[in-house]
Amino acid sequence: MTEENVGFGALLRQLRLEASLTIEALAEASGVSGRGIGNLERGRRATPQRGTVAALANGLNLREAERERLLAAARIGRNPRQSPADVRAFPRGIDDFVGREQELAQLAALAGQASLGRSQVVAVSGPPGTGKTTLALHAARELADRFPDGQLVLDLRGMDDEPPMPAELTLRVLKAVGVADRDLAKAGPQGHPELYRQALAGRRCLLVLDNARDEAQVRPLLPSAGGTMVLITSRRMLTGLEDVERLPIGELTPSEAAVFLTGVIGKDRADTDPDALSEVALRCAYLPLALRVAGNWLATRTGWTVRRLADRLALQERRLDALAAGDVRVSAAFDLSYRQLTPSAARLFRFLALVDGPDASVAVSAQLTGQEFFDTEDILEELVETGLLGSDQDRYRLHDLLKLYARDRLKAEETEEAAAAARSALHRWLLETAVVAGRWFEPDHGAPPPTWQGTVDLSTADHARQWLQMESINWLAAFRTAAHEEDHAAVVELAEALHWFSDQWIFWGHWPEVSATAAACAQALGDPGLEATHLNLHAWALLICEGRHHASMERSAEALKAAQRANDLPQQAWSHSYTAWALSQLGDYSAAAPHNREAARLFEAAGDMHGTLHAMSSHADTLLRAGRYEESIAEHLRTLAFLDQASDSIEPHSAAFNRTNVQTSIGQAQTLLKNWAKAADHLRIAVDLARASANPGLESRALIHLADALHAGGHQEQAREVYTQCVDLGESANPQHVVSARERLAELDQS
């Protein structure tokens, strides 16, 4: 049975049902036997001759257009030149296909829908070199048996200066599926679209439209009915197409990239130096085209080790030049898309190479070119549409190799002065914005001043936190540049503005660097008060972020001397407080006590309520570590009473931070006293407070102690759930607590 018969039969049945006729009624009206009509509809009989079709058309009382449609379907079926447009000799390059399991599963599911007679159109899009064509051809071969009328691959040459027009492509498909020249001539160019629809209406074909330029080129080629499946590949997202399944693809995973390279160069050679193989894959940024080039390079140079190529690719400034094999160059693939950009889009693309982080916001991008926010957003979306830029919500990302390409274009097409000015403007804006955002969490500051004219929304502390975290790599790079350029005042201002914010994001990973850099800049400025402040901040970072107790105490001692020179009582108090904290964690409680007392005295003398709050909490925690659990609980309750009495005098985020810590410590003490229920109550309060303030560092501490209390109290399943919640917090949590939670989950699994 061929699809031509099914096509005619399906159309005949459709027209009969639309006319509300039974087979018997149509047989009586047309003079064609009922058995013959049934066999035609089920594809069990060859397509009838013209006279039979005319009789059926009369019996159905068809209009002229419907009559021609039925006759055309019969002609296609009778045409001896017609054979399935079956491109089974697929182009090379798909035998070593790797990965894309999820995408292939999605295509298989859509092919199943097409098999039921519902046409499917899938737009496969992605940056240059991601393997869109390879995926489409591999899928076409895998799904070939589901489309017995054939598989046709058309190269639409979308990157050409003058790609083929829809009329030319339509004619090529019509000829490929066997429409007779006389029928094409009779219909004329204006009738080809209708012939095209008729030819595909009852068929089950797979049509690959490769390398589409835009929506206008492919829209006339999309079937309106029947069981045809169309796979469109394009560097553009083809946003204007409607009723289309979208399948964006990117780079391979590291493991898939290693498998791909192994398939090209051979297992023995790959196994000789797996680390070097991984480096080659990484420096190809897991882009299939780059991997192909690298693999071919090694395959044709058997005297080269994989390490030699990895080292060759290590130099960023030469990497794109190295990713060339014969007439295949990765940069050439990028050139094709870049040449199609508007001038403003090409300029922004070049300047995006100056962004230090992996992605950027609209506001960051606007600083590079000086354009208005909404104009910049439109240009970014043009880059996304052309496949040169990835997007995730309101973040935009250049693929690693595209960033190198953008850097080359920047060097070739912009002056050094223009690039330096753009980078300077971006860094200045990042530093200024980070200072305003950080001061949301600083006592006596809060919301931005009315005079501040920013391009990002910092109207709430939550917005400020989100901005600081989202742009952390970018503002950190600006901070480093300021330090390198010896802009000491800018470095010190930013570090001080982020002092209290650091409590909200304790385990970010860069606070030791920020505080150490600021301490050095403060020393260079010759201001002992600033020096004491940033030495103390460095002591905190060494103690809390890195657990380096003795190094922390050395910095505290330096800070104390500077604070005494400056006659700065609060910084003297912080020096004693951090020293006491480190000694307490080392288990030297007797040595910690006098430092705690001195810190409390100095804070009170200075009228520093935030410092006094910290000293009270620190003293209670020292009692907890010393095993004086009841006394610790009593001191923590005093701290809560102090918070309640101080009310608005304590900055809200600092108050929430301390309340969370106090409730956690009380819960920990109650656990050690084996008061499991009381412990769980306090620890649940701590978890809720930490979540409300979006502080995963504190949340992980509360969760691990809550899970321990539940486990000790005999509630193993509840404990398992809470340990899992701790693990799920990921990198923003205290890494020690995450490790402990994993270990205890493993113990529960073994019990």
From TrEMBL:
GO molecular function: ATP binding
Keyword tags: ATP-binding, Nucleotide-binding
Keyword Translocase listed: no
Source organism superkingdom: Bacteria
Bilayer-spanning residue ranges: none
InterPro entries linked: AAA+_ATPase, AAA_16, Cro/C1-type_HTH, Lambda_DNA-bd_dom_sf, P-loop_NTPase, TPR-like_helical_dom_sf, WH-like_DNA-bd_sf
The protein's name in its UniProt record: ATP-binding protein
Species in which this protein is naturally found: Streptomyces kaempferi
